[in-house]
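INFO  loader      accepted 1 record
INFO  loader      residues=81
INFO  predictor   begin
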Amino acid sequence: MKTLILAVFALGLAGPAFAQSASCNVQATEKKLAGAAKTSFVTKCEKDAGAACDKQAADKKLAGAAKTSFTTKCVKDAVGT
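INFO  predictor   done
INFO  writer      dumping tokens
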């Protein structure tokens, strides 16, 4: 139960972390990238976001399911859909 509460709390904090910067897909569109260039850019952006999200999870001292949940949502928000 404690892990679930931590996960929900962490997910609530993930949104504002990337609210200030545009998602990877939006950035690619703004740069007018297409095809392989867009794929390469988004892949690198996703990898960078994953590293940043892992660091945030470590700073929050998350572990296990809470860390996985936080990191997954954090990367998804950073990449955009």
